[in-house]
Design brief:
212 residues, alpha/beta, Rossmann fold, seven-stranded mixed β-sheet, 6 helices, 7 strands, 27% helix, globular, binds S-adenosyl-L-homocysteine
Length: 212
Amino acid sequence: MTTPPHDWDSSYLADEPPPWDIGRPQPAFVTLADRGKLSGEVLDAGCGTGEHTLLAASSGADATGVDLSEAAIRAARVKAAQRGLSAHFEVGDVAAMSRPREGFDVAIDSGLFHVFGDDERADYVAALSRLVRPGGTCHLMCFSDRQPGDWGPRRVRQIEIEEAFSRGWTVESIQAAEFEINPIFDITTASAWLAEIRRTPTADPSGQADRI
Ligand code: SAH
């Protein structure tokens, strides 16, 4: 399964905000921050307008958000300045990002994994394998196959998360969770999976060994 290229900028430049852009972090990630899980060097992959990057920054992390959309990154930088928070924001493809010397301690993925087709998904996981240090963690929230209808992104089954991260990672937990949707839309929440996935401490840091 492949997905057609998407013009992400147009989502952010439209009159209405995109459904996922709720003006605050997803509650599931606030809970993770409260539990001290968003600390160290944190990458927010597909950060959009930066709510989870800024959540991590406000929890004391050295936070970096990356997104393909220039419009989203512009908005994220404005929010950081308005809130007096320090975070790094980059326009770019997460798969092409360079790795900090030691690798990121934590990767946040709120709504990115589920946008990829199968081939892109494998490339994305290979990129995370390169970017996250051995022993580091990825917290990933994606649309769930429990969500009825076909509105929104592709639905993901738990087994797909397990399969995507079957080499070089350990899936520590997958919990039922919810995405909050911008209230201007008809549905206000959507069923999600929230996964905590740990990079194997001894894995090949280049990520090449983990390509499926
Ligand atoms: N995490 C944000 C946005 C989720 S929507 C939030 O919770 O609000 C998915 C985001 O991923 C979009 O902003 C889109 O521009 C971005 N994106 C899609 N493919 C990407 C890629 N290859 N690299 C970086 N960002 C990407």
